[in-house]
Amino acid sequence: MKFLLYLICYIFYPFSFLVPRSKKKIAFGSFRGAFNDNAKYLFIYASTYLKDYDICWISPNRNTVGLIRSLGLKAHFVASPAGIWHALTSKFWYINCYTSDIMFCLSGNAVVTDLWHGVGLKKCEFNIDSGALAKRYVEKNFWECYYHPECFRRPNYLISTTPFQSQMFAKAFRIPMQKCLDLGYPRNTILLDNEAEREQFIQRYEAEPVKQLIEKIKQYDTVYIYMPTWRDSQREVFVQNFNLQQLNDALAKQNAIMLMKPHANTLVDSKIFEQYHNLHFITANIDTYAILPYTHVLVTDYSSILYDYILMPQKDVILYIYDYDDYINDRDFYYPFNENTVGKVANNFSALLEIIEHKTYGINPQEREDILTKFWGNSMQGDVCKAILQHTAQVKSL
After folding, report:
1. Which residue in 24, 101, 220, 338 is deepest, having the highest Cβ count within 10 Å?
2. Residue 234 sits in which domain range?
3. What's the distance, CA 171 to chain centroid?
4. For residues 362 and 342, what is the distance between their CA atoms, to the nearest angstrom?
């Protein structure tokens, strides 16, 4: 069945080039049909300010469609006649990852802007030369290519942050450097807003679970958030290198809580956290970016969340890199890890626990500034969403 569905997609794809597309229609979508990440924030901005455009979120998830409609915004189910028609007739597409965020076979002649999902050190896409994904990008295994055509559809534009990052992205996505726009990420605007602006956004656009979680964590003196990256090998490592009882006890002594947020590709049984009062599992329907400003310490590994997080002043970072040697066999880095990250390093759980117990996770201000300059430059200054729409959809006035 999967083979036949993809075959139908390949047959239909050439016809998507024949449908006239309107420059006044814009389609948005995200990975696995969710309403999140850069596309979410740009969609809300465009829906607010581009009143003479037909702007729609398209998703294979009916719950996502219902959520967006409840906010008074336009959304269609991707397999509905309205969803197919909007995707086919929209001149401009905005996605978080690939055209499969909407539907690959409907993307012919659309101007696709890939908002992507993070700067960082990891090799991605066609820069990958080792690990599990090498079958797709290096060996070009037939079945890997057949079931992932979206990976080979080059975007018209890709949002980046600095020339340092764009050099890497241009090669990874096989596009010219000038198509990598160093404008910054829409999702980070909520991190940099003042509290009044952030609160207004949350009250207007976030679901009740997000609001409830924010109120809950305000009761704690310290809020940690654990956000590891995904392993290409798909090995399950989310909490295998934790003693959850010891961690919970250490947090309880500080009136602290740790939010546990797996990568979207990582499947975790959330029930294992129910017995621990100072550990809270964040489900997929929670927008983490609305939560981050209310946390104090990020615990991560090789994830690009590090670079977003340190945009906020007075935040601290712990780098929990217990499987460094194994990880670099899955996915190599462009640049030396230690020279391009900031935060207190913990190589095992005992070290992590000691850092938390003694609160020795302060970031050196100069090291933080150096990393911000290298990875962000001036890209998050000014109206990021406005700049993206003007550069990619030729929007003249906002």
Report:
1. 101
2. 206-375
3. 20
4. 10
Cα distances (Å, whole numbers) of residue 39 to 11, 115, 186, 199, 389: 28, 7, 8, 20, 12
Tell me: the pLDDT tens digits for 171-201? 999 999 999 999 999 999 999 999 999 999 9
**Strand, coil or helix: 92:** strand
Residue 249 lies in a domain: yes
Structural domain includes residue 196: no
Structure tokens at 141: 């295994």
How is residue 166 written in tokens? 């764009």
Which residues, at least 6 apart from 363, have a Cβ–Cβ distance to it below 8 Å? 310, 315, 316, 317, 342, 343
pLDDT (tens digit per residue) in 199-251? 999 999 998 999 999 999 999 999 999 999 877 555 566 777 899 999 999 99
Hey, what are 34's tokens? 């969710």
Amino acid at 169: F
Q: Which amino acid is at 153?
A: R
Phi-psi region for residue 184, left (φ > 0), alpha (ψ -120 to 50) or beta? left
Q: H helices then E strands: how many in the chain? A: 17, 13
Asked if the structure places residue 136 within a domain, the reply is: no
